[in-house]
């Protein structure tokens, strides 16, 4: 006859095994679902200003002011396995010093059960700064909307769908003198 602790251990092991197998099967049920959505991304106004950045050697930097609008419906991404979405907008560009610069301008966490439609008309949440003078008259800056699907069980995919390319102004924003 088995003792009570041996029976409890066997029951616990069996329950954990069944739970792990069921979790894996549930993960497989949404693995091949389409994770893209239609995104409308637009830039309304762009300006570049000289700035001071104490974290750089020269102290000089360019600051960009970009107002943008985003429209997207994330309803298809929310299924039984989606806990939340982490959505973020990045600006990407190349300079002589760096072959790829990526700056997060805006982000949002979208929880399951809340409105999955995203309509944003905004200025950036974070400062758009280049550690030199690489923004003035830059011909190709790309805004890219990306998101991570945070699942209950499974992989953590990073998806990007919407992008919009634009050029920076060829003159600095004039500072007011009072």
Description:
The protein has 178 residues and is mainly beta. The chain folds into two domains: 1-32; 33-166, Sandwich (Immunoglobulin-like), CATH 2.60.40. The protein has one helix and eight strands; from the N terminus they run αββββββββ. It has one helix spanning 4-29; strands at 39-52, 60-73, 82-93, 101-111, 117-122, 128-130, 141-151, 158-166. The strands form two sheets. Strands 1, 2, 5 and 6 form a four-stranded antiparallel sheet that branches. A four-stranded antiparallel sheet has the order 4-3-7-8, with no helix packed on it. Strand 1 (39-52) and strand 2 (60-73) form a beta hairpin. The longest helix is centred in the first third of the chain and has 26 residues, at 4-29. It is elongated and about 85 Å long.
